[in-house]
């Protein structure tokens, strides 16, 4: 379609104006972002939050990877669409255990029940988490770098918001793949599996010995006792390994944030400040197995998938030790 001559002329004049006074054009863009954030916050503050409207207005001005207020609001909008509520989580925070059954306590959160692997809610909440973890255009998440890039206050806020969401997301993950019930007990959720992974098909040494040493109660050395959605044959190896990494990266990034972000003892996080100390002995024991320390230090989904494509033995050690042993 040919533009009318006057429209073309007006467009050209606007380009010249911006070229001559680029600061004013930048200011206009900045005001658009501010207006978009304010509008999104209004949508999210309604009695019935308008999650999609908030997403639309924020995405409409383009991603702002270095604007912490924009990123936190966009993450909140996707989390809202993913049926995550900080208020609901805060109401249940005291039920989270700072011991070896940390995963089991997350699995029994009210937001943890899922109807399928990688549900729409799971995907939306993961989008929200990734917006925060990769803030500033980072290639790899890092709670320490977050505070370096955005400053202690804003970086700390980004870390804590991500932590809230990752806690809920790991609860969803543990309950689905661990076949947890409403009490967070592994293998009692109505599906066929009693373990996360079927170790017998790949030969990770003595997974049940590892899990039992870490408090796990279910044997994981039998045949076909892992979740079908993590099965290399049923789900496909690449898909299963991607899903294994989803759980690993949630666990690793929670651990990273808890280690490197100051949490007030009287904050809404309650006993979560004690989780690092409680998990440390189990992590140290797991790191005695080859490759585990490097994989626990991995914080990027892409890096994890690359590592598992080469060898998944370390991932199996971690699952046997910290996931199988992390639910009663």
Q: How would you portray this structure in words?
A:
The longest helix is centred in the middle third of the chain and has 26 residues, at 152-177. Helix 3 (51-60) runs antiparallel to helix 4 (68-81). With 328 residues, the protein is mainly α. The protein has helices at residues 5-20, 22-44, 51-60, 68-81, 86-92, 102-107, 120-133, 143-150, 152-177, 207-213, 237-260, 275-286, 292-296, 301-310, 313-323. It has one domain (82-326). It is globular. It contains 15 helices and no strands.
Give me a quick take on this structure.
Helices cover 59% and strands 0% of the residues. It is mainly α.
Keywords:
single chain, 328 residues, mainly alpha, 15 helices
Give helix % range. 55-70%
Low-confidence stretches: 1-8, 10-15
| Quaternary structure classification | single chain
Residue-averaged pLDDT: 86
Explain the layout of strands and helices:
Blueprint: H1 5-20, H2 22-44, H3 51-60, H4 68-81, H5 86-92, H6 102-107, H7 120-133, H8 143-150, H9 152-177, H10 207-213, H11 237-260, H12 275-286, H13 292-296, H14 301-310, H15 313-323
Helix pairs in contact: 1-2, 2-3, 2-4, 3-4, 4-7, 7-9, 8-9, 9-11, 10-15, 11-14, 12-15
